[in-house]
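Input protein
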Amino acid sequence: MAKGLTKRQQEILDYVQSYMIEIGFPPSIREIGEQFGIKSLRGVTVHLDALSRKGYIERSNTPRSIRLVHASVRPINMVEYLPLVGEIAAGAPILAEEHIQDRIAVPSQMVRNLKDAFLLRVKGDSMTGDGIHPRDLVVIRPQQTALPNEIVAVMVDNEAAIKRLQVMGDEAHLISSNPSHAPRVVPAEEVRVIGRVIGLIRDYEGNAF
């Protein structure tokens, strides 16, 4: 048993470590509770808070934000912590600190050691035909160009959007995969590609990350 931990704290720490090695990202608070028969989410967070105070983990308020930080338990190269980018100010760098809402663990193989990959939260149902649903987190590979019909993140009207992009002369067609959404046509000069969608994270328990 690690120094200073109760039996239950050690069990939870071992479970989190094993889960991350096997699955590639942390368990949710609900999954930890189910594993140990803890009926309330608060009952789980009491143990997680203790592990945090004792220097074994770090966590934020999102369900899968547990990060193993103690050298004795940290899985090596199993996860990467990507910035979750929120509102983006026009003209400002995408990864400016004021835009970052959180840092969330994703499997290392999803980002393949890409530099500056980041996450965006999906708004609306325009891309459900591609399996991208509201509140999903999409992993973005930074790039400034897009091949026809690639699913990309673009800046238009000072907002980030996930669309397929077709440029026809001086027009940019932002194409949704939900047939109830018509293509949006805007001047090409008003659209800026900020990256390509390379992965997706969803919490199937219905919890927001």
Observations:
- The longest strand covers residues 159-168.
- DSSP finds four helices and eleven strands in the chain.
- The two ends are 31 Å apart (CA to CA).
